[in-house]
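for the writeup, i need someone to sanity check this before i put it in the appendix. the sequnce is what the collaborator sent (i think, or maybe the updated version? ugh). structure was predicted straight from it, no edits. if anything looks off just tell me and ill rerun, i have time this weekend
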Amino acid sequence: MITSKLATAEDFNDYLILKTDENNVFWTGHTSPPNKEKLFNWYLENIKKENRLFFLFYDKEFLLEPIGYLYMDIIGELLDTIDTGHGVNSKCGGKGYGTKIIEYALNYAKVNLHQIKYLQGWIATDNIGSIKNFLKNGYYKTDETKIVKFGDGSDKLFEKYMIDIR
């Protein structure tokens, strides 16, 4: 059974496990795991942001480590859009956890954030798992794209996916 919690300072070591995961390092554009001290400072700053909800996910029946994380940033001129970012522990790949995390974001916004009309996420064009995850949850691909420079110097094309929840 999956559980979630808002991230706190005491949860940093769980987040560190996720951010040093090989797949997470790659898909976030880095060539090596983050520096623990720098990540800790970033983490503390980000769990306190007023416009960011920061969740950690667990499935204690499957794994003693965290299974994933989710950022929900409230953005837009009218503060009616959430930009999501999420990651899944590579030990949990192929078990539907990414889909469940996005489902959680959709349900959380519908129930708790009544001003939110849209959720969006940016996905690298070669991240097939995340694309399938978003499409399965009802998102559609927009015409917006951006180039993101990865840590190895390469450029990756990202496409924006959205869903209208109201």
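The mean pLDDT is 94. Residues 31 and 55 are 25 Å apart (CA to CA).
thx in advance!!
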